[in-house]
Design goal:
Length: about 600
């Protein structure tokens, strides 16, 4: 049945316009409105194509910020985004609006209602992916004719108006979509998916408006304030919480003998878990639908930062920084007694890849910091490009719980019951002691990491940010979280003196994993030292140079310190410009200048 759905969806591509950058081109097919949209199958075929707008797992997992970085910096980190190289496509939006204007031809009212729900979801999704980047942008809920110059040269609508229209579409989607589809429900948008996306968007906009000081605006008689959006985020998330979802808590693969690893296992499932997953993207080799996340993360040397690792608590719920000499703990010591998710996200001593029997060594061809990301890594048969077929959980229940907790804390209304139903459930699955009550004591390290955080429940806000950082790493949330919290500067390594990793007490031979056998050798200078143990893999003989140095508190040190990359980066985050992307120059030109440019980009390119 699932294979049939994808075949139908692939066939539907032939019926849709490419329409890159245009809103008026007619579909290149003879099955246009006069003869199409008359049966439920037509509606299904057309709307199946909307699912292609869901992000790929490769893109979601490889968004580099302050938590995970790679050997290539993003344009965001380098400050090189430009209006001339930026582009956007309106084709998906046009196809959605074309559906709305023609689906009336089908006489099956129940089918129309269900597929209208799909279209509402994906119109909201289209604007969600775009407005979070560009802020103000034109809003269209109709197909533009080629002679409608007024619409083609329409100026930008406000971000508040866009967010409000997204809320309306998601409300309509939730009202019209089924609770569960009869076949393969996890791969179809549902009522819960619409509500979950609503909680995601409303939380983003509510906190963005709060921390960026966006003035309230009135739309359709509603005063759009941070509280307006945060209330809707909490309400939508809470409704999902009543629909019977739960966190994946099995240990079927036995990835580590004697240890429970449900978190790691969840992200390596060939067929996703329907209890936690609300909406997934399907991959299957037999259908030639694969991804390369495992290869790409290894090839890019996806590496966690020490800043990120410091977020993890001890398993007993105490902070890592409460330990003596916590700042100089070795690679091996970092993992002892910690939140079990740390060793399920980052390669720890004793790591065994799925389906293997031998402990895998920490190879510095796969990491720049010594903290190698292993989230999503499954069998070694997936190590090469386009070989992975693990499903991508695009919307999952853990995020909904975090959305609810954060929205309530930002509103100042988080209760002990809320904590028990959200953060404590996530910690229970992980194997970490619960909070049990609303935190009242501010963690100084979290406040240092998020200096702009504020509110009557500040301690809770910071703890929820800690939990969100740990739980949702490499799921395409981090950049957007830092942006909405007005903490974007941490994306750029210049603010932390580079991205730091494991601590080295000295140069020379290093025993990393606690087995008393040397694992790596670090040296400086042009000549490789002689007499290096043959037990050390060639990849782990590391010469410290300009790109990788040792630093202590951001200052380069010749003998000891944190393994640090990009310490010489100079680009500083521009608080007036960098929270938005530039409007594509081509769009400004095509609209005769009707589209205005975002602040900070006007004088760069015209």
């Amino acid at each position: 049945m699932e294979k049939t759905r994808y075949i139908i969806a692939a066939a539907a591509v032939l019926l849709l316009t490419s329409c890159e950058g245009f809103l008026t081109k007619e579909p290149e097919t003879q099955l246009t409105s006069a003869s199409y949209f008359s049966t439920p199958t037509h509606l299904e075929l057309w709307t199946n194509n909307f699912y292609y707008a869901m992000p790929d797992q490769d893109d979601a997992a490889t968004q580099w910020a302050d938590d995970v970085f790679a050997k290539v910096r993003s344009t965001l980190q380098q400050g090189t985004r430009s209006a001339s190289s930026e582009s956007w496509s309106w084709s998906n939006l046009r196809n959605i609006n074309y559906f709305f204007e023609n689906e009336y031809r089908c006489s099956d009212a129940a089918a129309r209602r269900k597929y209208e729900g799909v279209a509402h979801f994906f119109r909201a999704h289209f604007y969600w992916l775009n407005y979070r980047k560009y802020g103000d942008m034109p809003y269209y809920d109709y197909v533009i004719s080629s002679d409608d110059i007024g619409s083609l040269r329409k100026p930008r609508d406000s971000r508040g108006y866009i967010a409000y229209k997204i809320m309306q579409d998601l409300d309509s989607a939730a009202a019209k979509l089924p609770e569960k589809w009869p076949a393969q429900p996890v791969y179809h948008v549902s009522k819960a998916a619409a509500l979950a996306l609503k909680s995601r968007v409303a939380l983003f906009e509510g906190t963005f408006r709060k921390y960026h000081g966006v003035p309230d605006e009135v739309v359709d008689g509603e005063t759009l304030s941070p509280e307006w959006f945060l209330t809707r985020a909490a309400e939508a998330a809470h409704e999902v919480m009543g629909k019977g979802y739960s966190l994946y808590d099995r240990n079927d693969k036995g990835l580590v003998a004697g240890d429970r690893t449900p978190y790691r296992e969840y992200f390596t499932l060939g067929t996703t878990d329907a209890c936690e997953t609300i909406l997934a993207k399907r991959y299957e080799t037999s259908m030639n639908i694969t991804h390369s996340v495992q290869f790409n993360m290894s090839n890019a040397q996806a590496s966690a930062t020490r800043r990120f690792v410091n977020h993890y608590l001890m398993a007993d719920g105490t902070t890592f920084q409460s330990l003596p000499d916590w700042e100089t703990k070795s690679y091996f010591e970092q993992f002892q007694g910690r939140d079990p998710r740390l060793a399920q996200t980052i390669q720890a001593p004793g790591y065994v890849q799925e389906a293997d029997t031998l402990v895998s060594p920490l190879l510095f061809t796969k990491t720049l910091s010594g903290y190698r990301i292993i989230k999503y890594v499954s069998s070694s048969s997936h190590d090469q490009g386009a070989k992975s077929e693990t499903d991508y959980p695009y919307i999952r229940y853990a995020e909904v719980l975090l959305n609810y907790a954060e929205a309530k804390a930002e509103l100042g209304t988080l209760t002990t019951e809320d904590v028990n139903e959200t953060i404590d459930l996530i910690r229970e699955r992980a194997g970490v002691a619960p909070l049990s009550s609303v935190p009242s004591v501010v963690d100084p390290l979290m406040k240092e990491y998020y200096p702009n955080a504020s509110g009557s429940q500040l301690a809770a806000i910071l703890e929820i940010r800690r939990e969100r950082t740990v739980e949702l790493v490499c799921e395409n949330f981090r950049i957007w979280d830092l942006i909405r919290w007005k903490e974007g500067k941490w994306i750029c390594p210049a603010y932390t003196g580079g991205f730091s990793g494991i601590y080295l007490a000295e140069l020379g031979e290093q025993e990393l994993d606690g087995d008393e056998t040397p694992d790596a050798y670090f040296y400086r200078g042009a000549n490789r030292p002689s007499g290096i143990s043959k037990k050390i893999p060639q990849e782990n003989v590391i010469r410290l140079g300009t790109n990788t140095v040792l630093t202590v508190k951001g200052v380069q040190n010749k003998e000891k310190g944190y393994l640090t990359t990009y310490n010489s980066e100079k680009y500083k985050w521009d608080e007036e410009k960098d929270y938005l992307w530039p409007i594509p120059l081509s769009q400004i030109q095509e609209t005769g200048g009707a589209l205005s440019q975002n602040p900070g980009y006007e004088d760069i390119e015209r």
